[in-house]
Structures are given as C-alpha cells and as structure tokens.
Amino acid sequence: MRTIDDITGEILTLASTHFKVDRENLSPQEDFFKSLGIDSLQALELLTRLENHFNVELPDYEVQGVSDFQTLAERIQSRL
Known about the structure:
5 helices; globular; Non-ribosomal Peptide Synthetase Peptidyl Carrier Protein, Chain A
C-alpha cells in the first residue's frame, strides 16, 4: 500500500514533469497554483492526469478548495 509520502512524491514528480518545473522547487505544503504557475483549467488537467495515474476518481466536492500538494495526496489516498 502506498504511504502518504509515496503519493505526495508521485504527485510532485508528475506535476514537475508535466509543467516543466524543477522537482526540487516543489514542496508538499506549497500552493500548486503558485508553485507551478498554473490557472484553474491547468489544475483540472493536472487532476485528470492524477486520476489516471492513481486509477481513482476525485469528485469535485472533495477537491474543491484544495490547493496544496499534501492535501491533494490525502484525498487521493482516501480513494485508493
């Protein structure tokens, strides 16, 4: 079973690769809008990629208002 640290690490790696940001510049507590320089449409794109990667479905009500990597990882872990 994946730990929260494993999931967070995978999210950070996927996000850094997709948005071409150095992985070392991202931390779990950061706001992904600011750290990745993305807008809400790009955030939805990221969520779709994460759903596919982890093979989960994240309902809108669970991710609404979530803007940091750590909380996103917790939401994903609850669906695994």
